[in-house]
Design goal:
Order of helices and strands: HHHHEEHHH
Helix content: 40-55%
Distance between the termini: 57 Å
Number of strands: 2
Strand order of the largest sheet: 1-2
Radius of gyration: 20 Å
Largest sheet: 2 strands, parallel
Structural class: mainly alpha
């Protein structure tokens, strides 16, 4: 009925939560909590949960496979604390990946999906392969400066510096 009255509604996406296997009281409580207590996660947490964005997929691949940062990527913070055991943050690594793909204009992309900045003809598999190769080499060079014991003497793990490394890598390849 609604589509007959307002056909433009057919082009809209609507988020739906299904409370499967819950009692009616549990579903009601979930509805209440979602609508009264919903807390938007910080950008770092949101990025770490994104499974669709190509840049986040590449960052996650590096976080899981690169010998230098494997198991040492902080998924919750935007910046590392002195006491953190991790070497980089996921949001910093993703910023670096976005900047590798888009160049300096990647800094303006923020947490948005990068696909809106890419031509439709972009071969994302080729992009992934190239970016992983570039960042494997960069991380090898940064292994010493990224080490926890060197954190007080360097800012190399900061998102801005990682993005700068990406920009330099892209410029040197052209």
């Amino acid at each position: 009925f609604a589509l007959e009255q307002m056909p433009e509604l057919g082009n809209r996406n609507v988020a739906v939560i299904i409370h499967h296997g819950k009692t009616l009281d549990e579903a009601r409580q979930g509805f209440h909590d979602l609508n009264t207590k919903e807390v938007k996660p910080n950008a770092a947490v949101a990025i770490s949960m994104d499974t669709l964005d190509p840049a986040t997929k590449i960052a996650r691949e590096l976080a899981e496979t690169n010998d230098i940062i494997k198991g040492k990527v902080n998924m919750r913070r935007r910046q590392l604390r002195k006491s953190d055991d991790e070497l980089v943050t996921m949001s910093g690594l993703r910023t670096a990946i976005v900047t590798t793909i888009l160049g300096a204009r990647g800094l303006q992309a923020g947490a948005r999906a990068i696909e809106e900045f890419l031509p439709e003809s972009t071969d994302l598999d080729q992009v992934r392969e190239t970016v992983v190769e570039i960042w494997d080499a960069i991380l090898e060079e940064l292994e010493g400066p990224l080490a926890k014991e060197n954190r007080a003497q360097t800012v190399v793990a900061s998102p801005a510096v990682l993005a700068g490394c990406a920009t330099l890598a892209v410029m040197s390849n052209h």
